[in-house]
Every structure is written in structure tokens, then in C-alpha cells.
Write a structure and sequence with these properties.
eight-stranded mixed sheet; two-stranded parallel ribbon; alpha/beta; 12 strands; homohexamer; about 20% strand
């Protein structure tokens, strides 16, 4: 169902969001990392999946009594039931964490449905409980007030902004213990490949630096010696 | 074409956004005034019209070269040509004024098309020129950088947030020298009537206060004397 | 001494701040959760107690030399000695965390005096030490500078704002690992009861969802089946 | 009634807030200028008077229906009627301009009562009207929503913070076209005298600089020549 | 003395900062407009000159008594005396407007010395006086407190950040009634030429739009008709 | 090489940043604690060393392609190789955490070179990895995007601002689990001595308070009894 290929998904699970932003920077994309959004449970990462989006607008009081959730077609509830397994639910909460984007029960439902993760640029309620779940979840800060206090879910799977980043449905959303990066769908395969290669090199560099080697000529590999050492290291490590 | 009746439009032109927020507050609507948005040309107000909305998301660099405006269907350009005369174009710029929501030429085009006003929670470029136009325009602060630097127009006439306020297409948008308030469409007639009545009373109160009368018992009119004085004043003034 | 009844206190210890905000929302109270304030020691929660308040204003340099603490009647020190056991000391620091609201020694004193918790919308100094104490403490962020750098304690047990929330002396302050909510005193009993009931239902829902059940019809319980299942579950669980 | 002497009041009317902050800085007071607060009507300044304070806390919805203003003892209305002529009403709005601190009718009443000015660290409604009144008024930005939307007046004439500055009842509040500075009551006479002298010197310096003189040795007057020129200039000007 | 050629300076005086940001955007420079900085006296613009920079760091109290200005080599005073005629003094105030970047006397001195303008990302004191001077001045907001309260001048003519923009000594700084844009020195000639051409076209477009023409096909000029009309218009206007 | 004496370094390792700010406050230094900066790995503290600084300005796109790091003299790389062992690298990132100040490899290199710590008022990338290293690191929040996205390293070892604090090369930078304080170089010895003494007293006070003693008369030690108890306690403890 997902257009994200299994090999690309696997590669993206092994690379960091930092490495991915470098690959994106090289292609002129400077603004794909979600600002000020962090994982509730760093252990649950990595997260990889296609973006399935949910858009909130500010709540108008008369349209958002507690009874709206009785409607099975309420977009928030619908999104939770329809977000595809393997996808990541990304919510545009207008960077407003004064009320919750979602809570423990909905996130649990996403987890049991096989959804790959959930991201908001607002906050989650029941955050201590969510922090224990086996689904990666990212937000700005805990926010107990019920969603309807400040948010009205209005649209499903349209292009949104999240934490200052453009997110198109189907973009590849990758999260680790540092945060979340959005990889445009058409670049996913090539960036996954490039990032996986970079990761091998950075592992080599890290090992060298831990052994006391200077970064000059090593990182980036401007010395011929670095390149030959790396070739030998790869061979030795079988990577 | 507009569902906004002529008498309601006329009444809304004579009342202040302050008075309207009081009417909305009485109905439990506490969040209809656009925060931190002000008129470029206070003389151009009052502004009254139905909301016609435009939604921006953050710009992705590869999707937003300068050439995108060659597309006649680019949502920003389309909105400028299709926003109905008498309506107000309201732009969701995610409260981001780092790049322009629109500039002098587009605002001039809206003016010549008979559009009633333009509002963004970002900023306009060519703001000194816009400040001289005979169309009310409201923004956060001047912003010279071209729209594409940080914005991508994505949707026309969907519900949006603007400056923290929910705006549904067709809501009545009213602006004066103080700022902009959004009146839900279904309340427009009754709120216009109530606000017009309140304005008469407030004009009476202001006159009394200027003459040295205390506000106690006068505002609100808890004294019987106030009520009879007001009745006499209305009669005398023919209001 | 406390007007907070023991059964209500006990119930409030078993419910989350998230559930309480829902109960408050149903009564039209949308702004009772402290924004951007978090526990230093999530393990120490839950916190329940009546609010005892302390108000700070910005420090004027000539009035706040280090010697002011030699005065036994300095409001900060007085508050620490007089805050009743079982109460929560809530400090209005004007959301300014540039200097400490209090430090490790004062918080330790509150703990030994049996105070139920301490909350500021500024920051604590000695925060690593406070994080190890058996008293719930909530703040915005660690702040080493001595209190007098930016704060002057001015009033004890007057109504204050804390993190954007109105706090009246005697209001019930409840904290968990998510944050802090303020329950108006006159609503404490009924909200505690309602929240306790809601918690039973949410525990049922969570269990169902973990077993793979959809939230539609379940949460909220719009399906008759949900209601009968819940009745059976309660019976089985003895809750 | 005022403890502010007529000569000091007169001197303070002739000096700028900039000059006053320098005098305060020399005495170790670095934080007496209200941040981000500006005059609605720069022409109405200068403002000089003793501080009479009003304190707001965040509004709790159930305590703040529109009907509260029917109470003649509502602190906001009471403050407007009781602030002494010649004093300045200073409002602690917690730097929250989302709802009005006061509006046109109340400010008009203050003006007719002979109050010297009004200051808030929030916003005024009816700001276009207030901008035409002959009473200095200072705020952060226009704010149409009625006061009760976010504020509850709670205390009169207690020490407050306003725009980050400590304000004690009786402090001398001075405003010009630049902004507002708070002079501690006990320093008013000496600072007024010093600032008046500084102003004479700065007028001399400005004249010299306009004529092309370098600031080196002139400002500050480290050259002996500057001091003798100034003496001559004062004599010639009769200042 | 200036490397800015007279023809380029003249062209830059006739184009808007908005047009310049478009030229910069086409070259991949998206961040050259100073954010949230505005002219004190919009009538004084346009401003064109080479950047001469001054860098502030936060003030340490013991290093910044009022007496430091007695030192003729104090970097702030030195910068005011040494900034070349025709240059623009650009101050990095770390976007901190709590204390003044400079005041009326220094700005007057710059004016009499023939300096082309002054820009800070903080605030000026004596702002009402500066607003009357015949030198363009740009800041964030008025700020009465003396410079030393929060700033220490530390460096002259080094690369700085100002309002989020990189400024290298010698870059061309252009200001109009909208704000300030920084043109890298090596691009000044080509961008001035391109912007002047664009301005001619935009004047044509504006005239057409005022006469009722649609922007589609006109702006940008995707219709052949537009291009031939423009050619004819230029000829007729002699531009 | 370091001018920081071994005894002073040792003392500073045993005192808290909170205690140090009190010592600084007593000398009129109110602004030496880095605001909103926290340790990535609280276990790695304490950090003590002389400041070695690195200054960033906003990145201009054309000057900051990924290839700039091939230059061995790039200031960021140079700083990492040249920061003296035992010193603390302090980076002025203009409080901008949208892109990384540095990443895991560079921080590892600093660690292996014996550098005492690294501080930025922006963010680090590879923050999960840095959190595991045996070198104290302090930042605002995790930030994956590569440094060049928003920063250009421009200067080494000049006076800077970091998180609102003036930092001169050679100042003593102390970090604990609470945050970072900057002690002016010339005060380091006397403040270390005073803070060490204060720490002994505070340890005594804490013990007393834990045993149930009131803070009145104890803290500060205004009771004679406190002073004699403390003398006895010191003797007993051998401190």
C-alpha cells in the first residue's frame, strides 16, 4: 500500500536526522527539520513512514462543544482510524500547545493499527502514558487541556505546515531521538542511499576521532590518506 | 451575489470592532479579534465583507522558484482574480511576516476589482504604496521579501486560522482603525443590529462623560435615571 | 485545617490533569492548566492541595540587596514558614525565569513542614537537588540566579496569575507528571467525583483499544454495545 | 493631595524619559523604563503624576460575565472614579494585550476627572478615539476585545509590575513621545533637578553638534573648552 | 572614497527594497531583509550606502559605568566619528531593544558628518527627536535607557548579524519607507541595474492594473501582448 | 598554559552555579547565568575552564556551501583543533537553534583533545550521541540541520554574547546540572573561595532543615545560635 520501498524504509531506519538534513541541504532544501519538536519516548525511535496529515484551525467555541466527538466523521477521529499502517500521522496544530493535539487513547489506537508514528507541532495530553507506548510520538510540550479548547480538526491529508516545515501527504517522515525530518517523496530513495553511505563514513570518522585523530583532512576527507584508510576500514568491517 | 444583506453591511460600517467583540463575548465567542494585526492606512477603514480565504504553507525551495507565478492557476494569483467584489481576502500566513503575503500590484488589482479589503497575519511588501490605496489592508508588519521566500499558496476558500482566529469562508470580516474582527455568518444580522443599538447608547454615554458625569450607574446603565435620560436623548437626537 | 475533604483529596490523587481539564471544559472553564510548567521530579507526583499564594513583582535594585533576607518578615521566607501543611505554595513569578523563584533549602523546608507541593511560573535554583526531593515541584526551567536579581516578594495569599491561569487562595491545585491544573474551590468535590468516574471509563477504553477495538462508538460511548460492555467490565473489575 | 511638589512636576515636564533613565542609571536603577509601551497620541505628552495602580489577574470565565460591571465596586470602575486628579493610573495587565485594559469611555472619564495619564502593559480598545483625547495614554497595541475576556481587576493601589518595571503607589510616572519611566518617589526631587540641568547641557551640545562640532571632548564634556563654552552659552541664553 | 559607484548609488535610490529582495531571491539569497526594523522617519528615505558596522555584546555592570564615555576611543563614540560620509552605520544590538543603541546627539553628529544613515536591530533613545532629522534611521522600537544598561560596544567594522541578516563591511545597505535590505558588495552593480529595469516594468504594470487590467498574463508578462504593450509604453514614456 | 589556578579550579568543581550567582550578585553582577541553556548530559558535569570563544553570524547562502569545510582554516574547525585543553569552547550562535552549532564528531574531537566542555546558545546536532560523551555540553535544544544552514563561523576568541551573557576570552566558565555561569577572570579566585565557604554553610543548613529546623534565623544566620551551631558542626565534620 505504501509507495515507500522496503529497502528505503530500512535504510532510513539506520541513519540520523542530522545526516538526512545534510543530504537535503546539498539539494538546496534548508528547512525540512521540525523546529522545537522532540520525542516523548526517545527509546521508541527510529520512526519512518509516509506522511498522512491532519489540519487544525483555531476552535470557535460554539462549534466545539464536547459532544462533537460523538460524530464518527469528526476529522480527528477519522484520521486516527484511517491513517494507513506504516504511515506517520502529522498534525498541523499551528505551533499552539495550549491544548492537546491528541491523547493517550488515540495514540494507543494508532499504535495497535500499526501506524508508524505521530507528530504534532502542539502538545499531547496523557504524555506520561504516551511516553511508555511502543509508538514514536513527537510534540512540543505536554498539554493536558482537551483538544477542543483551542483546536478544530478541519482537513485530512492536505499539504500542511508543521513546526515551520512544509509537509505534503506522502512525504517521508523520519524521526530519531533528536527530532523529525521531512524528506520529499521523490527524493526518498536517493537520499536514503546517500545518507546510508554517509553514515558508514561518519562511523569511520567517529572511530578515528575517538582514537585521537584530528578532524583536519579527515572530516571532510580532504586528505588522500583519509580516503585510503576509509577504503581499508570498510573492507575490514565488511560495510 | 453576497449573502451579506445591504442593511447589515451598512450597520457594520457604523460600529466599532470593540463594540462587536462585546456582542460576540455575550454569545460566548471570546476569540474573534485578530491579534497584533493593524491597518496600513487607518483612513481607509471601515471594511466590511464576506471572508474569501487563501491558505499558505511554508515554502519548499524546489517548488517555489520565481517562475511559479507564470502559472495562471497559481492559487495566490487566482485568489486575487476570483475573490468576489465586496468580499474580503483573508490570508493565513501562519503569523509569519518574514516574507510578504502580497504586494502593491496585487492589492491594487483587488481594489480595482471592487474587493472590500485584504487581511493577512503576515506582512505586505510595497507597504508604503499600499498605505496610499483606497482599499483597507491589514497586516502585522511590512515585509519586503517576495512571497515565495517563505510561503506557498496552497488552498482557496477553505476554513483557516488568521492571527489566532478561526475564519470560515463567508464569515463577515469587519475592520476599523483598531483592527479586524470576524463575525460568524449566521450571527451577522443580529450582531449588526445589537451593535448598532449599543453604539447609540455609547455615543450618549460618551457625551455625558465628556460633560463630567460619573460612569457609575451610567455605564452600564444601572441607574433608572440613566435609562430615562437616554430615552430623552435619543428622542432629541432622532436616533 | 484544610477545607479540602479527605475523600476528594484521595480521588484527585487518582485522576490525571488531562481528565480534570475535560471536566472543567464541560463547565466552560478553558484556562485552568498551567502553560509550559513541568515537574522537576515526575516521580514525586501526584500533588493535591489548596493553593497558598505568593506574589512577586520585578525587583528594584535599591530595595533588594542580599541583606533583605535577614528580615524574618520577608514575604518569601514568611510564606515558606506559614504555608499550611497539605497546601500547595503557588508563586506568581510573572513567567520570568531569569532568576530563581526559590531554591533547594526553602523547598526542603516546605517538604519537612508537610506542604503538598510548590509551583512557580518562573524557575527554581538548585533544581538538580530539588529533583531528588519527595515533594512535587513544578517550574518553567532551571534558574540559578538568586531570587532578588529579578523578583521582589510582595504579597501573601492574594489572588494571582500563574502561567496564565487565575489562582485564588483555597483553589485546589492538582499536579501529575504532565503538569498542573487549578480546580476552583467550589467545584472540587463534584469535579473529583466526575473525574474519578471518567477515569474508570477511560481505563476500560484503554484496555479495549489495546486489544484492538476501534475508537468509533467506543470513545465517546455512542454505541449501546460499549455501554453494556462497560457495565460488565466494571462489574468484573469491581470498580 | 499629591506629594509631588509643583516645581518638581514642572521640571519633569521639561525633561525627556531618556535623560531620566540616565539619572536613574547613575543611581544603580537600570530597569525603570517600560518596555515596548508607546503613546497612542504622542502629541498629548508630556505626562507627569504619581502612580495609582490597578492589578489584573487572568479572567476565570465564571467570575467574569458581562454583568460584573453592574457592580459599582468593581475594581476597574472604582479605580477610574477614585484615581486622584494629577495622578497616573498604571495597570498591570501581565503584558497581555489579547483583551483591552480599558476603553474610550473610561479614559474619557479619567480625562474629565483631571487624571494626568493612563498606562497599561496590555492594550486599549477604542484606541483610535483615545488617540484624539487630551490625556496621555500608553499601551502595547490596540486590543478591541472587552476587558473581561482575559482580565479580572483584583486590586487597587498595591505595588505591581508593569511592562517589566516595579511600580509602587506614589512613584512618579513620567511619559513623553518615547515612552514611560518610573521614578521612585523618594528620588523625584533630586532626579528632576539633575535631569533639568542635564537637559540644559544637552541642548547646548545639540546646538554645537548641529553646527558641526565633534562629540569628542564635548559629550561628555571632557575638554576644558567645552565647559567654558557651556558656561558662556548658558549666560547668553539665560538658562 | 566609497567603492559604491555614483550610477549604482543613484539607481538604488530609485528602487524599492521589495524589488531588491526579488533580485536577491533570484540569486539564491533569501535572507537579506532586516526583520522587524522600521524607519523612524519614513520621509527621510531612501538610504543608500556602504555598511560600516559596530558590534555590541551584553554589558557587564563593572565594565560599563557612565564614565566609560569619557574615553575618546570608546568604540561607540569612535564609530560615530569615523564612519565615512556616504556610509551607513549598522549596529548589531543582538535584537535587544531594552536599552538604546544610540541617541539624538550621536545621530545628529552622524548627520552633520554626511553619513548616509543609521540602522540598529535594537532601539534608539530620543526617538521623537531623531524622527525629525534629515538622516534615515531604522530601529526596532524606541528605547530610552542609556546604551550602557545592556550594551557594550566592542568591535568596529567586522562582519555582524543585524536583525537576522549577515552584514559585511562594504555591503550596500538600502533603506526605504518599508525597511532595510543588504546587497552583497560584489552584486551591487548588477542588482542595481536589474532592479531599475524591474521598476520600470512594475510602474507600467501598476498603471495598467489601475486602469482595470487583469494581472494574468500581465504580471509576470507571460502574454505576448503584455510585452509589446510594455515596449510601446516605454517608448511613449521615454524610459 | 591556563591562568586558572589548580586550587581555584578544584573549588569551582565543588560549588553550584546557584551559589556562584549569589557571589556575583553581591558584587553587582546580575547577569552572568546563561539563560535557557541546559546540559545534554547532566551526569557529565561539573565543568570548569577558561572561555575560548567562537562567534557566528547569520549564514549568507553563497558563502556557505557544504564545501567550505574543506578549508582547514574554517573558523569552526580551527576552533575545535585549537581550543586549549582545559578550556571551555563557548559559541555565540545568536540564540538561534534552527541549525546546529556543532555535532557529534566535533564534540568527540574536543573531548579527546582534553577540552573541558562546550557551550552554545543554539543547539547541537547528534545530540543523542553527545549526551553519552564524557564531556559536558550545554545547549538550548537539539538541532539536526547542518551548521551552514543558518550560521557562518567568523571569529575566534573575541568577546561575545552567549545566551544573553557577556563572555570574554579567559573568563571562567562553570557548569553543573543546572546550567552555566560565567565568572569574570579577575574575580575567579576570590569567588571560588567565597563560594566554597558558602557551600559548607549551605550543607549545614540543608542538614538542619532536613531535621526539621525553621529557616528563620538559620538562613541567613541571623541567630547567634545558628552561628555557634555551625562552628560546632564544622568542627565535628572537619570542614
Amino acid at each position: 500500500m505504501s509507495k515507500l520501498s522496503a529497502p528505503t524504509r530500512d535504510k532510513l531506519r539506520t541513519v540520523s536526522t542530522a545526516t538526512l538534513t545534510t543530504c537535503l541541504f546539498k539539494r538546496g532544501l534548508r528547512n525540512q527539520f521540525l523546529q522545537a519538536v522532540h520525542p516523548l519516548n526517545p527509546q521508541a525511535a527510529p520512526m519512518v513512514g509516509e506522511a498522512y496529515t491532519l489540519r487544525y484551525i483555531p476552535a470557535r467555541e460554539d462549534l466545539n462543544p464536547i459532544t462533537v466527538f460523538q460524530d464518527r466523521n469528526h476529522p480527528q477521529r477519522k484520521a486516527v482510524e484511517e491513517c494507513p499502517p506504516g504511515a506517520v500521522l502529522v498534525i498541523d496544530s499551528r505551533q499552539d500547545a495550549r491544548a492537546a493535539s491528541a491523547g493517550g487513547i488515540l495514540v494507543t489506537r494508532l499504535m495497535t493499527r500499526g501506524v508508524a508514528g505521530i507528530v504534532t507541532d502542539g502538545g499531547f495530553r496523557d504524555s506520561p502514558e504516551i511516553a511508555t507506548l511502543a509508538i514514536p510520538a513527537y510534540h512540543r510540550r505536554p498539554s493536558a487541556p482537551t483538544n477542543l479548547t483551542h483546536h478544530q480538526a478541519i482537513d485530512i491529508n492536505v499539504p500542511i505546515g508543521c513546526a515551520g516545515v512544509p509537509v505534503f501527504p506522502g512525504d517521508i517522515v523520519v524521526g530519531d531521538a533528536e527530532g523529525v525530518v521531512v524528506v520529499p517523496a521523490h527524493l526518498a530513495d536517493e537520499i536514503a542511499a546517500e545518507a546510508a553511505e554517509m553514515t558508514v563514513f561518519e562511523d569511520f570518522v567517529t572511530e578515528q576521532v575517538r582514537q585521537g585523530r584530528s578532524i583536519l583532512g579527515l572530516y571532510p576527507a580532504t586528505d588522500e590518506q583519509t580516503r585510503s584508510d576509509f577504503t581499508a576500514w570498510r573492507k575490514a568491517k565488511g560495510r
